[in-house]
Structure prediction request, 90 residues.
Amino acid sequence: MARTVFCQYLKQDAEGLDFQLYPGDTGKRIFDNISKQAWAEWQQKQTMMINEHKLNMMDPAHRQQLEEAMVGFLFEGKDVHIEGYQPPAN
Prediction:
């Protein structure tokens, strides 16, 4: 049976993640408050950000930069700025 969470990103009830995908307190906060849909949107942004900024996930400073962007995106309504990226027009 799917879990339902009140997604802080979507501002509505939505299907929650099946398990905690990110470590620590931030991971628990995501698991408790972020939906599968919102996580999938973040994953796309994260991939673009890693590629755009040539982030190395072995570098603690790069991981910190990515985590700050993730928390801003999922919880604070901050979009991730990707140089030259234009979202598709609806």
